[in-house]
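Appendix B, Record 12. Input sequence as logged:
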Amino acid sequence: MSTADAPGDPAPHPEPTPPPWKGRAAVFAVALGIFCLITSELLPVGLLTPVGSAFGVSDGTAGLMVTVPGLVAGFCAPLVTVGSGRLDRRPVLCGLIALMAAANLAAALAPDFAVVLAARLLVGISVGGFWAVAGGITVRLVPDRHVPRATALVFAGVPTASVLGVPAGTLLGELGGWRAAFAAVGALGVLALTALLLLLPPLPPARAIAFRELPALLRENPAVRAGVIVTSLVVTGQFAAYTFVRPVLQGVSGIAAGQVSALLLGYGVAGVAGNFLVGARDAYRTLLAVSAALAVVLTLIALLPGAAAGTALLLAWGLAYGGVSVSLQRWMLHAAPAAAEAATSLMVAVFNLAIAAGALVGGLAVDGLGAPAAPLTGAALMFLSAVTVAVTVTARTTAAPATDR
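Logged structural output:
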């Protein structure tokens, strides 16, 4: 049997698994942290126009509020994982959430767009570091049989941020101004920090990770390598389109500006449903179906006019994309069960770099060709992802009989 497909538990850890109620409480605290971070990272999606208007910059330039933290998070995921290798994970996670809260409060008070971007840089450090460390600790908080459910719960914070965070931030921005939205996310970060301090148990590092392990994992593990490629394609495609969903809904579907926050809420509800619908399903086949579905949906939302079509397609988009984060995490845990933190840090690095790349590519497409170019770019990348997953599934299926002989 190949290394990529070999069963096994993640690397043993020195501390015992917490009692069930403590483990569940800690999982909820981590999920709240992920929710806060993703809300913070994606908040500008619903605020591009008002922030851009306030500082006199275009929608494409305002999209840098998504690009900057994505780039920083991509580089910081492996840096934090390796740099904090000998530290207890509890204070690391708490410190990163505190940094996120402070950054959003700074953005709320920013006198110009440059200060907003500087604050977004700090958000990127928080997102990359927290996600990379948190993604691999569910196996240390609950018994093995509950790990799939706990992982789904932690990563429910991603679509739930779309359900509550981004729409609520958009609505608050419409009612009280974009500064109030950033301030509210900062206050939410303080709440998450309190939950982590109260509920998360001490988590001494299972083992130190060296930088050389990360490229070695890519070289020697085909499943990890394929997971990284799929992550880059799916997430770049998603954020090439989703960063500019507001201009697309208003310009292509003809939806009024006041209805956008409600539709983003529907998108997020569908995303949460997609996250739990996926659950413990096979990550490879799930990502194949999701990539193919998103390629079709993004093409149609760019081409079909009308509010009814735009609404239906947006809900289908949310349902399909909702299963991406948990499926990518399960792909990596299956591909490298003995190197969970290293594999997760690679996935998170690529995930966040892809957010930045998608926002940048989408911004260039929107500024150069108009709003429909963003989802069409995303659709092309989703198609490439579907092809990549199909090739990977075929290779696994072909190799399995040979390795079992």
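The two ends are 9 Å apart (CA to CA).
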